[in-house]
Amino acid sequence: MDCDKIGKLLYDLRKEKNMTQKQLADLMNISDKTISKWERGLGCPDVSLLPELSQILGVNIEDILAGKLDLNEAMGGNMKNLKFFVCPQCNNLLTATGDANISCCGKKLEALSAAKANESHVLTIEPVEDELYVSAAHEMKKEHYISFVAYVTGDRAVIVKQYPEWNMQFRFHKSGHGKLYFHCSNHGLFYQLI
After folding, report:
1. 91-100 tens-digit pLDDT
2. Which EC number(s) does the record attach to this protein (predicted)?
3. What's the Cα-to-Cα distance from 62 to each of 30, 166, 172, 187, rounded to whole Å?
4. CB burial of residue 149 (10 Å; 0-12, 13-18, 19+)
5. 40 and 106 fall within a common domain
């Protein structure tokens, strides 16, 4: 650990929050002299204080220990770069259009890698007026089901959450060419071109 880098980061983060050393120290029930010592690089926070410090300053513990924040470069926001994250514990669905450190249920999540749909994992897509009707013969039981379907184009994403025991069918308004992503709880993420 580089106490100088950590101290500089803590100083910058505290200033971003418009907090004095005393205000931060009071929130943590420690001395403002301790905060001053950290910010001058004369020591580092004790491991037991890192979770609280992380929460107050709004950054990950790993970033504090690294002494820097890895910022993404500004992107045009192209939705075709959309990444999907699904928590294996609670099936929470999270998305990001750039690099992100995402965690759920206390574990870091990795972006899912999409495979092209095969005959056992394929959605039926039928045009109905100006909409597309999507359905699947895929089983929808608690132990094996499609958890979400996402229609992604260059400027938008429409996500439809699915649940066990539901019929896998819905409609959405078609708005150009794109990809239809869907997640099987047992076999991962798939895609079909529209």
Report:
1. 899 999 888 8
2. 1.15.1.2
3. 22, 40, 41, 31
4. buried
5. no
Question: What is the domain range of residue 32?
Answer: 3-66
Res. 71: pLDDT tops 70: no
Its pTM stands at 0.67
> Angle 32-39/3-16 helices, nearest 10 degrees?
120
Q: Residue 17, Cβ neighbours under 10 Å: how many?
A: 11
Whether 83 and 52 share a structural domain: no
What would the pLDDT profile of 150-185 be if each residue is shown by its tens digit? 998 888 889 999 989 888 888 888 877 888 999 999
CA distance 163 to 167: 9
3-state secondary structure of 11: helix
Q: Read off the CATH number of the domain in which 94 is found.
A: 2.60.40.730
Q: For residue 75, which of 103, 100, 110 has the smallest C-alpha distance? A: 100
